[in-house]
Amino acid sequence: MKNLPLLSRKTTNPPGLPDLRDKVETTPDWLVAIHPALRLVMNKRARRVALRLDPDRRIVRLVAPPRISQKTLQNFALSHHGWVAEKLSALPVPVPYHDRTQLPLCGRDITLHINLDKTLKRTNISLKNNDIFISTYMDDVTGRLNRFFKRYALEHFTPLAQDKATRISRAITGLQVKDTKTRWGSCGHDGRICLSWRLIFAPPAAMDYVIAHEVAHLVHMDHSPYFWALCADLSDDFSTGKKWMKHHGHSLLAYGCSDDFSTRAA
C-alpha cells in the first residue's frame, strides 16, 4: 500500500472531483487514462492518499480524503503506475465460470456444464459425481454459482470444524462462510468461526490446515508456540497445508473472476 501525507484542508472539493461526504467508488476519465484498473474512492475518514489492491475484483483503489486536489491525485497515481502494474500482473490468471470449465472442489476435479435457455424462469444447479449442471436464463452465472459454492462450503466445513473442536473439548458457537479479502479465517473470543468459502478450491491439506488454525484459536487466541503445536496436532498434514496457503493461497481469488478485469464494472 502506498501512502501520501494529506496536503490541504479545504472545506470543499476542488474542481474535477466529486462532492462526496462518504466513501464512494468512481471511475473518472483522468484516472482510468493512467491505468484502466484504477478506481477513485473519496473517503471522509481517510487521513492520507493510499493505493489499495483488491485482488478479487482485480482493481486498485486510489483512496483519498475529500479535501485534496485532482492534480495531487494525478501525480500520485502517475508516480506509482509501475507499482499498480506490478501488483496486477502478479495476480493469478482468472478462472471464469464457462461451459466445460474445470475446477478443483474439495480435492476432486469437477466440470461445469452450463445450459443457457432464455425461456427458463429460474436457475437450477445440481452436483452429480464430478459434474455440476447449471440450467439458466442468465448470461453470467457467476453470482448464482458462487452462492451455490457458499452453501456447499458451509455444509463441508461444519463437520470438519466440529470434529476438531470436539477433540479439544471446545464448542463452536457459530460458523459462517464469507468471501473474505484479507484473511482465510477468523475466530472470535465468543467461539464464532468465520471461513472463506473459497477454501473449497484448495487442496484438502490446505483447507484442513486453515480450519485447524481457527479451531486452535478456541484455546489459544495468539500465535504462541503452544498455539502452533495445537494447530499442528489438529491438522491432517500441517506442513503441506501451511506451505500451500503461504505460496498459493492467493490463487483461490481467481475463481469466478472475469477473464478481462479491465472491463468489469466498478
Question: Care to describe what's here?
Answer:
The chain has 266 residues and is α/β, with parallel strands linked by helices. It has two domains: 2-89, no CATH class; 102-254, Zincin-like, CATH 3.30.2010.10. Helices cover 31% and strands 23% of the residues. A five-stranded mixed sheet has the order 1-4-5-3-2, with helices on one face. It has a four-stranded mixed sheet with strand order 6-7-9-8, with no helix packed on it. Strands 10-12-11 form a three-stranded mixed sheet, covered by helices on one side. Helix 4 (142-167) crosses helix 5 (204-216). It is globular.
Q: Structural class, judged by helices and strands?
A: alpha/beta
User: What's the architecture of the largest domain, going by CATH?
Assistant: 2-Layer Sandwich
- Broad CATH class of the largest domain: Alpha Beta
Q: Please tell me how large the radius of gyration is.
A: 22 Å
Major β-sheet, in short?
A: 5 strands, mixed
Give descriptors for this structure.
5-stranded mixed sheet; 266 residues; 2 domains; alpha/beta; Zincin-like; disordered N terminus
